[in-house]
């Protein structure tokens, strides 16, 4: 919990950091997230060795921490994506302002209004594609999070079923449902990827 709160505190510094220090803050956050994931793997192994009456609560606690850290990772990626988009727009504006236009040769003269309009349209197209890619990335990350949650829930159900001594028939029904949910999730991910590909192909 303490490490998660520390990462949340660092996340609050991102919006106020200047261009020179924002990369350092991002690297520090990523290093702390990686460290938490590493600790969670060890906790997961330790929780499996707990007595049966404590094992369920330990696993639930580890799964909750893992869910919180995955959301922090997604928030960091979204911030980096927005920062990259802003920096790209600034570079495009600087390149446009630094560009020189020739007036001696009428055949090579570039109308400024048309150039500005073209550049604005290009930026709008880039923004649209970036937003679509960002949305698709968030959807895929959400599906991955759901997959982790489903796997954790499946393990919990099996543990509870073993403790309660449920019949083999009920166990098979539970496993069949989890198998179907897995294919539904994979199908959703495939449809999302196809839609993103078609949209990018259409815009470009």
From TrEMBL:
What are its GO biological-process terms? intra-Golgi vesicle-mediated transport; protein transport; vesicle fusion
TM segment ranges? 183-203
The protein's matches in Gene3D superfamilies, at most eight in alphabetical order, are given as:
1.20.5.110
A molecular function (GO) held by this record is: SNAP receptor activity
Write out the annotated subcellular location: Endoplasmic reticulum membrane; Golgi apparatus, cis-Golgi network membrane
Tell me the superkingdom of the source: Eukaryota
One GO cellular component term, please give it: late endosome membrane
Arranged from A to Z, the UniProt key words for this protein are: Acetylation, Coiled coil, Endoplasmic reticulum, Golgi apparatus, Membrane, Protein transport, Transmembrane, Transmembrane helix, Transport
Q: How is this protein positioned relative to the membrane?
A: Single-pass type IV membrane protein
Pfam families the record matches: V-SNARE_C (PF12352)
What task does this protein carry out?
Answer: Involved in transport of proteins from the cis/medial-Golgi to the trans-Golgi network.
Per the similarity annotation, which family is this? Belongs to the GOSR2 family.
| Name of this chain's protein | Golgi SNAP receptor complex member 2
């Amino acid at each position: 919990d303490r490490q998660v709160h520390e990462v949340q505190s660092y996340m609050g510094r991102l919006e106020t950091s200047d261009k020179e220090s924002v990369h350092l803050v991002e690297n520090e956050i990523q290093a702390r997230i990686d460290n938490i994931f590493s600790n969670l793997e060890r906790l997961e192994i330790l929780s499996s060795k707990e007595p049966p009456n404590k094992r369920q609560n330990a696993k639930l606690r580890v799964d909750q921490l893992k869910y919180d850290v995955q959301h922090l990772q997604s928030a960091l990626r979204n911030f980096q994506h927005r920062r990259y988009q802003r920096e790209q727009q600034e570079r495009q504006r600087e390149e446009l302002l630094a560009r020189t236009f020739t007036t001696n040769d009428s055949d090579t003269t570039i109308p400024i209004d048309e150039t500005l309009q073209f550049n604005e349209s290009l930026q709008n197209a880039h923004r649209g594609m970036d937003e679509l890619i960002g949305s698709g990335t968030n959807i895929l990350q959400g599906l991955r999070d759901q997959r982790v949650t489903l796997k954790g829930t499946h393990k919990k159900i099996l543990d509870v079923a073993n403790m309660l001594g449920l019949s083999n028939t009920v166990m098979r029904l539970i496993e069949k449902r989890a198998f179907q949910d897995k294919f539904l999730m994979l199908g959703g991910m495939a449809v999302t990827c196809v839609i993103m590909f078609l949209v990018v192909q259409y815009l470009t």
